[in-house]
Amino acid sequence: MEGQAAPDGTPIPCRAMDTIGTRFAQKECKSTKVWEDFDKLMAGNAREQTDKIQRVGSGGATTAGQ
After folding, report:
1. CB 41 within 8 A of CB 33
2. Mean pLDDT of the region 48-65
């Protein structure tokens, strides 16, 4: 699909995605809108996991008053 255009004429970008269990990246081609949504989802997941680790790792709220 790389180098092709969507029905509305916009180019379809491709990315090399890492796949667990193989050393070879897998090429995925999606519309720009889908990639933007994917990036937002991944950024949100990363932020959520970082916050979770920081909350649990700090021990501030869970050990207060002991």
Report:
1. no
2. 72
